[in-house]
Write a structure and sequence with these properties.
Keywords: Membrane, Transmembrane, Transmembrane helix. The protein is an all-alpha fold. It is 76% helix and 2% strand. The protein is globular.
C-alpha cells in the first residue's frame, strides 16, 4: 500500500494528464454513439429517409479520418495538450450544434467539423498515454479505451428519456383514477413531427462536457511550455532503450495491428450505431427504447469487462486471457448469426459475448507493439486512420444493406468478427515467435505496480 501511495505521489502530474485523456475519450465514445442511439429521431427532425440519415455516420467519420491524418503533423508543430484543448472545444461546440438544425446539409457539416477534431483527439490521446507511461502503457491504454466504452455506454442511457415513440408504438400511462387496477395502454396514432424531436439535448450535454475539459488541458499546456525541452530530452533518452528490429519484422507487426484496428473500429461502429435500429427493423420488432437498451448492454460489457481483465493479468498469463476473449468473440458471432434475427434471448446473449470479447483487443494489440517498437505520432496515425475509415465505411454499407434486408446486419457482424479473430490470433503468434514476447506481457514488478494503480479500468 505504501508503494502505491508513493507511486501516486511521484506521478501526480502524469496521472492528472492521464485522467484528462480518459475524460476526453469518454466524450469521444459518447460522440461516436450519439448518432446510432438517435438516428431514427434525427430522421424525423431532418425529414429524410433512413438510408439518407445514416449518411451522417460517414460524414462524421470522414472528418475523423482527415483529423487522424493531420494529427501527426500537428503533434510535431504544436504542444500536444494545446492541440487537445482546442480540439475538445471545437468538438463540443459543433457536436452540440449539429442536431439543432432542420436541414441535413447543415447537420452533416457540423458533424464533419466535430469529427475532424475528434480524429485528432483519437490519435493524440493514444500517443499521450504511450509517451507518458512508455513500457508500462498496456493497462493504462486499456483504461483509456475503457473510458471510450463508458462514454458509448453513457450515451444510450442519456438518450432514452429524449427519444419519442414512433407511430404505431404503444404508450403505457399510469392510471389517474385510483379505482383502475391496470395502467392505461394507448396506441400512438399521431405521426411525430420535427418539432417533437428532443434528441438534440443529449448532444448538447456531451458537447458541454467536452468544452469544459478543454480548460484544464489549456492549463497543462502553460505548465509544460516552461519545461518542454526537458520533456523532449526524456522522450529521446527513453526511445533509445527500444530494441532495433529489421524493417520487415517491424512492418509486419505494424500491419497486423493496423488490420486489427480497422476490424475492431468497424465492429464497434456497426454494432453500436446500428444495433438498436436492427432490433426495431428485424423480425424481433423491439421498440426503440428496448433497442437502445440492447446497445447499452453491449457497451456495458465492452467497458466493464476490463474490471475483470486487468486484475487477472497479475495472476494469469495475458495470452491465456486473450485466447478466452477470442472464444467469447466466436460464441457471440455464432449465436447472433444463427439465432439473433428471431430470438430475443439469443440477441441479448450474443451482444454480451461480443462486448466482452472485443473489449481489450485493441489496447492489447497496441500495447504489444509499443513494448517492442517506439510508437511515434506517425505510426499511431497509421494505426488509427484505417480504423476510422472502417468506422465510416462499414456502418454506411451495413445500413444500406440493412434497409433492404435487416438480417444482413448479422451477416456483416459475423464476417468482420471471424476475420478479426483470425488476425488477432496471428498477432499473438507473431509476437511469440518473432518478438519473443513472454507468456505475460507485464515484464516486471514496476510495470505491475503502474497498472495496479489504475485497475478501476
Amino acid at each position: 500500500m505504501t508503494a502505491i501511495t508513493s507511486f501516486i505521489s511521484d506521478n501526480r502530474f502524469n496521472i492528472f494528464k492521464t485522467f484528462l485523456a480518459y475524460v476526453t475519450f469518454f466524450c469521444l465514445g459518447s460522440a461516436l454513439n450519439l448518432l446510432g442511439s438517435s438516428l431514427l429521431d434525427l430522421q424525423i427532425r431532418l425529414a429524410v429517409d433512413f438510408a439518407k440519415v445514416s449518411y451522417l455516420l460517414p460524414f462524421r467519420s470522414a472528418g475523423h479520418i482527415l483529423g487522424s491524418g493531420s494529427a501527426g503533423f500537428l503533434e510535431l508543430r504544436f504542444n500536444r495538450c494545446l492541440v487537445l484543448s482546442v480540439c475538445n472545444l471545437i468538438s463540443g461546440i459543433f457536436l452540440g450544434a449539429a442536431p439543432n438544425f432542420f436541414q441535413f446539409e447543415y447537420a452533416a457539416c457540423c458533424l464533419f467539423i466535430a469529427g475532424l477534431a475528434q480524429g485528432i483527439i483519437d490519435v493524440l490521446c493514444n500517443t499521450l498515454i504511450a509517451d507518458t507511461w512508455k513500457d508500462k502503457c498496456t493497462n493504462w491504454l486499456q483504461a483509456l479505451h475503457m473510458s471510450l466504452g463508458i462514454g458509448s455506454l453513457f450515451t444510450p442511457v442519456i438518450c432514452r428519456p429524449f427519444l419519442i415513440p414512433e407511430e404505431g408504438e404503444t404508450s403505457v400511462q399510469s392510471a389517474l383514477n385510483e379505482t383502475l387496477e391496470s395502467p392505461i395502454i394507448e396506441l400512438i396514432d399521431i405521426k411525430p413531427t420535427a418539432s417533437d424531436v428532443q434528441a438534440q439535448y443529449a448532444f448538447m450535454i456531451i458537447g458541454v462536457i467536452s468544452v469544459m475539459i478543454s480548460l484544464p488541458f489549456g492549463c497543462i499546456f502553460l505548465k509544460e511550455r516552461s519545461n518542454q525541452s526537458k520533456n523532449k530530452n526524456i522522450v529521446e533518452a527513453s526511445s533509445d532503450t527500444k530494441p532495433e528490429w529489421s524493417p520487415l519484422k517491424a512492418n509486419v507487426g505494424i500491419f497486423l495491428v493496423v488490420v486489427i484496428s480497422h476490424l475492431l473500429y468497424s465492429l464497434e461502429a456497426v454494432i453500436g450505431s446500428l444495433g438498436a435500429s436492427f432490433s426495431v427493423k428485424s423480425d424481433l420488432h423491439m421498440d426503440k427504447k428496448t433497442g437502445v437498451l440492447l446497445a447499452t448492454v453491449f457497451w456495458t460489457c465492452f467497458s466493464f469487462y476490463r474490471l475483470i481483465f486487468i486484475p487477472l493479468t497479475f495472476v494469469v498469463s495475458e495470452v491465456k486471457l486473450l485466447l478466452l476473449n477470442i472464444l467469447f468473440m466466436l460464441l457471440g458471432v455464432i449465436i447472433c448469426v444463427l439465432w439473433g434475427n428471431t430470438n430475443q434471448i439469443c440477441i441479448w446473449i450474443g451482444f454480451v459475448f461480443l462486448g466482452m470479447g472485443l473489449s481489450p483487443i485493441f489496447s492489447a494489440a497496441y500495447g504489444m507493439l509499443a513494448k517492442h517498437i517506439t510508437i511515434t505520432g506517425k505510426i499511431a496515425t497509421l494505426i488509427i486512420i484505417p480504423g476510422v475509415f472502417g468506422e465510416s465505411a462499414h456502418p454506411a454499407l451495413a445500413a444500406t444493406l440493412m434497409a433492404k434486408n435487416p438480417i444482413t446486419f448479422l451477416y456483416y457482424v459475423g464476417i468482420l468478427g471471424i476475420i478479426l479473430v483470425v488476425t488477432f490470433s496471428l498477432l499473438i503468434i507473431y509476437c511469440k515467435l518473432v518478438f519473443k514476447t513472454p507468456n505475460g506481457f507485464q515484464r516486471n514488478t514496476n510495470t505491475r505496480l503502474s497498472a495496479l494503480s489504475i485497475s478501476r479500468h
